[in-house]
Each structure stands twice: as structure tokens, then as C-alpha cells.
Amino acid sequence: MQQFVEARDLGNEVLFVVARQDARPLGSPAMVHETWAFTVEWDAGMIVRVTVYLDIDEARAAAERLAESRG
């Protein structure tokens, strides 16, 4: 199951998204949890780049810098 933890439009066609993935390995009673952050860049209404990060703070800082540089 995937859940969106945070989604922010940073302006200048840049989105910042944090998603959590929960899964149960086949044959196991244990759950696996993984959180990823995405920076999404748009241009003329189309996605032109998606960058995936495991470090959420690093992703947030990169997305904020990107939005500022595109402004």
C-alpha cells in the first residue's frame, strides 16, 4: 500500500512529494516500510523530470532550491 505523507507545490512548476510504501513479503508475517521523497519538475503541463531520494531532508532542500532557481 502506498500513502502520500506530504505533497507540496513549491511554485515555478516544482512539486515535492513524500510517499510511504508498506508491504508484506510473500510468506512472511512481517511488514516492510519504506519512505521515499520525489521532486517533480513540470514544463508546459508535462512532467519533464522526477528525482527520487531516500533522504527526505535532502530532497526537500533540493526541491526548494530548484523552485527558487526556476523563478
Describe the 3D structure.
With 71 residues, the protein is of the alpha+beta class. It has one domain: Roll (Nuclear Transport Factor 2, Chain: A). It contains one helix and four strands, in the order E-E-E-E-H. The chain has a four-stranded antiparallel sheet, with helices on one face. A hairpin with a 2-residue loop joins strand 1 and strand 2. The longest helix is centred in the last third of the chain and has 14 residues.
Using brief descriptors, characterize the structure shown.
20% helix, Nuclear Transport Factor 2, Chain: A, 71 residues, alpha+beta, four-stranded antiparallel beta sheet
Outline of this structure?
By secondary structure, this protein is an alpha+beta fold. The protein has one helix at residues 56-69; strands spanning 2-11, 14-23, 32-43, 46-53. It has 1 helix and 4 strands, in the order ββββα.
